[in-house]
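Archive transcription. Copying these from loose printouts into the bound notebook so they stop getting lost. Printout 1 of 2:
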Amino acid sequence: MKLKRFDEIQESEYENLMVEWEAEGVRISPYAMTRSGKAFTEMLKKWEWDESEAVREKGLVLATLYFLSDDSGRLYGAIHLRHELNEHLRHFGGHIGYGIRPSERRKGYATLQLRLMLEKLRSMGYDKVMITCDVDNIGSEKTILKNGGKLQGIVEHEKGKGKVFWIEL
């Protein structure tokens, strides 16, 4: 299993992942991979834009989307790295958002995906990262704790209450 940048994945595997997720009728996480009716080529352009300085003009931060993949190219989930924090992300959101496709949940893939991202961040020179989850998302909280997360507090956000964690690298 490895993390692949968005520009290293196959369109058919992305389509397979999204069809399953959309069929479940649940919120897609990370939101950055939601296609909203866009073709794969449009999504690639959007993800490229997310890494460009142009995002700053919109008040956003540089971000890169990665996918958890096996050797055959099957995608298990996605993880979104926000390279820095703005005021909104400092309150709730943090550096990382992630999710695992519905059929592969509760099998340890989220923990693995986050661990691989933390290893990548270490090699990029990060010393700590902020990550959050909704207060009722027990699976995500366990994933964060297994990867060294330390609870900093509970905050109100636009969709309810969330837990804020920091992970020392």
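Printout 2 of 2:
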Amino acid sequence: MSAPDPRPRSFADVFGRAPEAEASAPGRVNLLGEHTDYHEGYVLPTLIPQRTHAAVAARDDRLVRAWSDGTSERAEEFALGSETRGRGWLDYVQGLTVALAARGVVLRGCDLHLRSTVPIGGGVSSSAALEISVLRALRSRFSLPLDDVALAVTGRAAETDFVGAPVGIMDQMAASVGRDGEALFLDTRTLGVEHIPLPPGVDLVVIDSGVKHRHAGGEYATRRRESFAAAAQLGVAFLRDAGADALSRLGSLDPVLARRARHIITENQRVLDAVAAMRADDVARLGQLMNASHASMRDDYEISTPEIDALVALAQQDDAIAGARLTGGGFGGSIVALARRGAGAAAARRIADGYAAATGLSAAILVPRHGF
């Protein structure tokens, strides 16, 4: 038996014809604002260079055939209107067709080809990159009447309602309306956005810990339930509406719920303070806020891990780094840090080397990378 061909498989290799539309969408890191989006709060993500690419061609039936690099030799398939859960990565595609149907969008069958450099489980939103890239390709091929915000709303519906991951809308909005070199200041209640340039004196550093995480169920869902229980005890539907005065009332809550509420209330304020720091080009203040955010995620929301804490500590101790924190939903994934301009690559290598020495694990430097 011959060895499998290691070369990347093109759309034509898989489906025997050329694609009719192609699109892509980026991964993201979150500078500040973790677990605030499902409480209709504020977030501050920015894009990374890694992207997911989708290519599509229409069919004359209602069959969707989808192939993704690194998954299998054969395309997976399902019929529109007969989507069934439990098929791994294909659930994200099925979720999109279900979400589009719920919006009254009528699709034809199609062949879909996916390839990606966004690491799965790295805390940089590989799922949203898939969702938005596919939706962009479908919009292009079938002239779907959906603007960029509608794409984000549809992608989130696919992930929450079909896949079963109780995420907020930050990731899909970042992938759909974010811009390179800028932070996206997003009010997740109104979906109002402001594009804020990253400080010119910094390098963005993103390092994947190698510890994978999942959002569909598990501790992420537990934290969400706990946070809404805390909101109910404070008399609000969403913790965004619990002002700073609520902090003085946390002593009346169950201690665990008090910690969950404190994180989200203070994290919302940290986003607002970070926006002010960026407008003032105050990198030192921005770094302090990132450090405080990590401490809050570690101690109050309890979503960090020993490996992530070690990686963040190494970054915070590096002379070139202004601030560092866990990014993403937690329980693994990546960290984000700000380094002095021109010092990011060397600092990232020092941090990754120190992490390997301390933990025996290999960290992947996602940013900076050549060409970014």
